[in-house]
Amino acid sequence: MTSSALSSPQKLSMFQVLACGAAIVTLSMGIRHGFGLWLQPITQAQGWTRETFAFAIAVQNLSWGIFGIFAGMVADRFGAFRVIAGGAVLYALGLAGMALSPTGFLFTLTAGVLIGAAQAGTTYAVIYGVIGRNISADKRSWAMGVAAAAGSFGQFLMVPTEGFLISALGWQTALLVLGGAVLLIVPMALGLRESGFSGGAPARRDQSIGQALREALKYPSFQMLMAGYFVCGFQVVFIGVHMPSYLKDKGLSPQVAGYALALIGLFNVFGTYAAGVLGQRMAKRKILATIYLSRAVVIAVFLAAPLSPASVYIFSSLMGLLWLSTIPPTNAVVAQIFGIQHMSMLSGFIFFSHQIGSFMGVWLGGFLYDRTGSYDIVWYIAIALGVLAALVNLPVRETPIHRSSPGGLPQGA
Fold it and tell me: Which pTM was predicted?
């Protein structure tokens, strides 16, 4: 056996990475996708405005983005297990605080800051770092599609479950039950312990964090991916949080909203998986541009058509195909350009742009509704941004970045 083989950490099996990673994302993202179901029960019980709830969820998305950068740095340096386990504990505390907060300020701290930090450690950026380090480049886009599809399945599975818990137990008890359930992530994370990070020793890096970050931020294609991800966050979080209330305002039953969110999750299983598979065969920039333009068209047709349960279900199914399907190609491009050494950190940073968009989408929804009595303006903004994102992603260069330093060539690209 050669000395290089002895010094190289043993990789986890692809089945183990995907099984554990998918289970973690299913639970973490599944719970998150159902937060819109709590808007009306909480605001009515507490006497708060929709903007109060929307602002807390907006802060949650911003917190997720900010903490995601640091969670990615820690996971790249010391391994994903500690980050995921810590995120699960924060998630449980945040859900309990969300249930018990007596004021809007405390609700923002728990549902916003705490849960946002928890999601940073239990979702895509950290999981994709493990995938990048353990799965070869020829299967990486496909594997990322599988993990993203798991998050979509979580929405399909958890949104109806959360609706049932609210109706059966009340909104406060339902949140406490979910707080206990999310701790199941801790034993799942044991399957993602990597030998290269054993004993807490940082893995060897050819680039420092600062060098990797400066390189990425100056690279035009990285900036374009960030711009597209901003739009993605704006659209999906606005729809996910405000659509249940939008439909109820239009006279449709709460069950229609629950089925609509579940359909988004179900069809997104197919959409994200397909995006991962297509990413192995065609230019990812074209996939991203098609997704963003298709979203704009689907939203425009939905607003123009007569509103009915059938039109809602068709819209939800089509939007579901496009919902998280931006995630596999975007992260695969990041790995393809910059390599895998700092992938969790770079994915976390690009996701920060997504979360700024999420903040704007969910907050503007509540802000403009409280002032105009309608969500129409935000719908129109979502359409315009979709067209813009399609145009921005077309010039992205997917080839590995050229580095002059001997040790700076991208790994695994």
Answer: 0.74
